[in-house]
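Hi everyone,

Forwarding the result from last night's run.
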Amino acid sequence: MRGPNGEIRPGDVVGNAVHCCRVLVGDSEETYAGPQRNGGLARAEALTPERRSEIAKNAAAKRWKNVQGGGQAA
């Protein structure tokens, strides 16, 4: 499982508790997504606001495609 910031978490409750205790004691460290995040940030900086808007509109249209009404944009 991954947390909201990309940190790796065990899938079970007991394992997560053990991991949290290890982090608090200092035996283990939280790991964060590195290269993947950097690539996304670089792409976002390279895009113009118009292109980002176009990508967002296309994504919204795809999400709403199967919703009743056909997903036609106004």
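The chain has a mean pLDDT of 80.

Cheers,
N.
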